User: What shape does this take?
Amino acid sequence: MNKEINTEIIIRTTPEEVWNILTDFQNYPKWNPFIHSLTGDVAVRNRIKVLLVPPGSKGMTFKPVVLVYEPNKEFRWLGHLLLPGLFDGAHRFEIIDNGDDTVTFRQSEQFSGLLVSWFMKTQSENTKKGFEALNQKIKERAENM
Assistant: This one.
């Protein structure tokens, strides 16, 4: 079973500014309402450590592998709950230059595996709210710098 959560927000700034905020991992605990920490050597094929805390949910730490790390454009990872195929999540951040002094910041995750239907019933709304909260904070930080 596959399911996807998609969010996006328009931000009056440059792709570089959004990228700088998104990749300032050491300051996540100070401002990021969804990803409370992201540590490790962030590079393609490397494993990182991420602590997600969706609103109304307990936090979850996992160790995804970085799939894409393209400055000012895209950051994507693939994580698993316990074993691949049980509950997998491909998380993606995209920064799209709209050519009018704004960018579209997209955050999405594609879920697959045996536990996806359980997750969609119990956690998908909180996860989407977490994505939206993160998007809004990036917008606030970028537009107020």
